[in-house]
Amino acid sequence: xxxxxxxxxxxxxxxxxxxxxxxxxxxxxxxxxxxxxxxxxxxxxxxxxxxxxxxxxxxxxxxxxxxxxxxxxxxxxxxxxxxxxxxxxxxxxxxxxxxxxxxxxxxxxxxxxxxxxxxxxxxxxxxxxxxxxxxxxxxxxxxxxxxxxxxxxxxxxxxxxxxxxxxxxxxxxxxxxxxxxxxxxxxxxxxxxxxxxxx
Length: 199
What we know:
Number of strands: 2
Number of helices: 9
Largest sheet: 2 strands, antiparallel
CATH superfamily of the largest domain: Intergrase catalytic core
Distance between the termini: 33 Å
Strand content: under 5%
Shape: globular
Order of helices and strands: HHHEEHHHHHH
Strand order of the largest sheet: 1-2
Radius of gyration: 17 Å
Helix content: 40-55%
CATH architecture of the largest domain: Orthogonal Bundle
CATH topology of the largest domain: hpI Integrase, Chain A
């Protein structure tokens, strides 16, 4: 994907607006999880569609502390990875899991993201869902990949504070190459100015 064609990253204000918007949808708990899987775990549309309850629950059947994304739900043969759960995302998954348990849809092989007409959504349906969401909010240039780019960019900016490196961001994103991860990261002009002054 050419640099000029990449999905836009989302500001904190935009993320807040998106989360506020989905509170009024027909399936607010599901929709909140979809948004947070994108911006707080960096999942692709295919991964959101392929995520099952077995990948987010522990041996006790409760939502765990990480997503154990399997290769079959990801991109490529080795796209599977473990992603620690962001606190906000975990809380949203707990809420959705409670609903799934009530409705008999919380089996380990059941999709986390249900559709209105069937058990789960396809990757294409997830992509369309995000397109409609951003279109309704007038967020031009945003797509299902915007949350993922936002996640990677934010993680790259904060990784040193966490005591890590870009290699950690690469592994969280499930990229086979560090060069791919670097293409996802949106630069920050203010940070560049501050950095040059520090040198």
